[in-house]
Amino acid sequence: MSSRNSGPLHVPSLQPNAPKGGSVLGRALGRCVLRLGGWQIVGEFPNLSRLVIIAAPHSSAWDAIWGLAAKMTMGIGIVFVAKREAFIGPIGWVLRSLGGMPIDRKAPGGVAAHIAARIRASERMWFAIAPEGTRRKVERWKSGFWHIARRANVPVLCAWFDYPTRTIGLGPLVELSDDMEADLLRIRALYAPHRGKHRGA
């Protein structure tokens, strides 16, 4: 592990409308993990009660460790999905405690429609997803996050990993248009300066 970022760890403040989550112990643990790994957090959260967060580049299983540590540190309630079969026994309890939501991939109307409906029905819900859909390099991002955000009528917050500088970044916030292809190209271009553990976006 690296300790190249040895200054005080910046923890973005949660705005009044942001969903809260976690505990004092969880925040302390998350902060400890980030400090041991030499990571810093830059950017700020929007004052919104509902949105979709995308995180990239996703090139390593370590992304989940650092991402969850940042989530715990900031005390934010973020929802993510995993296949329904994973929510069994102790692992299921851990996943739920971290914000996991079981999803039936064969649900009528599709996963995107189901998640969008949950966002619309929630007083506060931030939903996170990796747009690449895999740790391998892909030529085209999956469009699921776009469909979810459009159906839920919420913006997309870009979150990113930059391993060379050990930085987890928040922003910018992107309002979507009616042109999916243009939006996907525009958003992916925002990630061009950032590099994951094994590759860029």
Count up the helices.
Answer: 6
Structural class, from secondary structure content? Answer: alpha/beta
- Could you spell the SSE succession in H and E letters? HEEHEHEHEHEEH
> Largest sheet, order of strands side by side?
1-7-6-2-5-3-4
Low-confidence stretches: none
Mind telling me the C-alpha Rg? 16 Å
Task: Kindly state the percentage of residues in helix.
Answer: 25-40%
Shape: globular
What is the arithmetic mean of pLDDT? 89
Q: What proportion of the residues form beta strands (DSSP E)?
A: 15-25%
N→C terminal distance: 23 Å
Major sheet: 7 strands, mixed
- Number of distinct beta strands: 7
In short:
The chain is an alpha/beta fold and 201 residues long. The chain has 6 helices and 7 strands, in the order αββαβαβαβαββα.
What does this structure look like?
The protein is built from 6 helices and 7 strands; from the N terminus they run H-E-E-H-E-H-E-H-E-H-E-E-H. It has 201 residues and is an alpha/beta fold. It has a 7-stranded mixed sheet with strand order 1-7-6-2-5-3-4, with helices on both faces. A hairpin with a 4-residue loop joins strand 6 and strand 7. Helix 4 runs parallel beside helix 5. The longest helix has 14 residues. The mean pLDDT is 89.
